Amino acid sequence: MPQLDSKLSEVVNQNVNAVGPSGIREFDQEISSIPGIVKLTIGEPDFDVPEHAKEAAIKSIEENKSHYSAQKGIAELRAGISNYLKQRTGVYYDPASEIIVTVGATEAIFSALTSILNPGDKVIVPTPAFALYFPIIKVAGAELITIDTSDDGFVLTPEKLQKVLDENGDSVKAIILNYPSNPTGVEYSEAQLKALADIISQHKMYVLADEIYSELTYGVEHHSIAAMIPGQTILINGLSKSHAMTGYRIGYIAAPKDFVTNASKMHAFVVTAPSNPAQYAAAEALNNGLDDPIPMRAAYHKRRDYIADRLEKMGMHIVMPQGAFYIFAKIPDTIDETSVEFATELAKNAKVGVTPGSAFGPGGEGWIRMSYAASDDDIKLAMDRMNSYLLELTK
């Protein structure tokens, strides 16, 4: 086993060296070895990829479509993305010049941010938020500015946004909005987005709209800020959640041509091009499977209602999710533990895995996130175990 030569100990990208691993994944790995644990930690759909999408992937292999694709993605998929976004957002994106197919939404976020940020730039992230944003901003040499939304129902208010922009001026180059939200499941209404768009439009900045959960909403309509300020919006989406294609790693960027021209360079430097079979499967899903998410959404809706009812009966305050497949629950005030301590003890003693709220930034401490992308049986077992555990604690 080779050991790093001591002369190289300080030969390292300092920005990368300064960030730690994902708190979500790290905690999940720590508790995964507990025998019999039921995990509600990771946002991994328990559904299978639609059959017609799988068949398209197999067909592409059989037809020897095994060479490098166009760096921005195959034409069929980019056309499908364009048609989908025109239907859902009302904004037309040219498939040839305004769309990039990426290796998951993760690469889309990385390629987008690293193509616009320079050292000293600032990026606003309303928190609690998907923790991946934080290290990417730092690796790009930019400064992260968080806005704690926990006192406002986990929704960014125009007043708080304006205050931060007044304090930081033109150094703010972007704001990241994720809705429906991971970890809270909160969705922004059209009026809420319009109020934020009115402010953003007055500043020299992008809004990176991470709408990966846009197909998973419950009783509310999803609206995209891209329809309001298309010239300032970098729209991120993908098929991991809508079509349960997490392992296929297909995401995309849709944005104005001038931005895409530059972002496609970073995309090409990082991955060259996405996998062909995955792209053909995604093209089939978008061109012929826009109804595929409907049964999944119905199942998630049912699970949401079940887990929310069980948690409320346990005396836990929750934020009722309007989308995604996560529920954010407040640790009872009677329990004097941090979110990491509570989640650790719950895993060890009740064999239930949840994610500590502190992993999602300011405003997350004192809360836990649970994914209801797990099976009905696992959710019921987890709730039974959690109920028994909390009853024991309060004796």
Automatic annotation (TrEMBL):
Listed A to Z, the keywords are: Aminotransferase, Pyridoxal phosphate, Transferase
Transferase listed as a keyword: yes
Question: Where is the signal peptide, in residue numbers?
Answer: none
Query: Broadest EC class?
Result: transferase
Q: What is its EC number?
A: 2.6.1.-
A biological-process GO annotation: amino acid metabolic process
- InterPro entries, sorted: Aminotransferase_I/II_large, AspAT/PAT-like, NHTrfase_class1_PyrdxlP-BS, PyrdxlP-dep_Trfase, PyrdxlP-dep_Trfase_major, PyrdxlP-dep_Trfase_small
Q: List the SUPFAM superfamilies.
A: PLP-dependent transferases
Ranges of residues in domain Aminotransferase class I/classII large = 37-384
| PROSITE patterns (alphabetical) | AA_TRANSFER_CLASS_1
Cofactors required: pyridoxal 5'-phosphate
Extract one GO molecular function annotation from the record.
Answer: transaminase activity
Q: In this record, what's one Pfam family?
A: Aminotran_1_2
Extract the PANTHER family matched here.
AMINOTRANSFERASE, ASPARTATE AMINOTRANSFERASE
Query: Of which family is this protein a member?
Result: Belongs to the class-I pyridoxal-phosphate-dependent aminotransferase family.
This protein's name: Aminotransferase
